[in-house]
Amino acid sequence: MSDSRTKPRTKAQPKTERPRLYKVILMNDDFTPREFVVSVLKAEFRMNESQAQQVMMTAHRKGSCVVAVYPRDVAETKATRACDAARSRGYPLLFTTEPEE
Ligand code: TYC
To answer: Nearest CA to 24 among 54, 45, 47, 43?
Structure first.
């Protein structure tokens, strides 16, 4: 019988690390209308009305709220698009990203 069938495999399997996920964080401000925040959350983060309302109100009350987690490029693209939508309407609304622990 050949070694390949009798011997256990000894070659180390490289550990595959999962790519880090990044949080998209919604920041509160005193100027952006609540309805606009909700509309951006629905459009960019595919939330329904009640999810978007909850996230908006959490940021409004606590100062910030985690919107979702994604691979880095997706998180950054969505945060940038959401900020751009606000800027194009003259609002200071801010979305940031940071790596998950
Ligand atoms: N605080 C804003 C207001 O009272 C509404 C708001 C909520 C803005 C959440 C940003 O992330 C935010 N008009």
So the answer is: 45
Does the domain at 32-101 match CATH 3.40.640.10? Answer given as no
pLDDT digits over 74-101, tens only? 999 999 999 999 999 999 999 999 999 8
Strand order across the beta sheet in which 64-71 lies: 64-71, 21-27, 94-99
- Lookup: tokens for 61: 């009350």
CB of 95 closer than 8 Å to CB of 27: yes
Distance 64 CA to ligand 1 centre (A): 10
ipTM over 0.85: yes
User: Would you kindly state where each structural domain of the chain is located, as residue ranges?
Assistant: 32-101
**Token pair in block for residue 6:** 């009798």
Question: Using CA positions, which residue lies closest to atom 4 of ligand 1?
Answer: 30
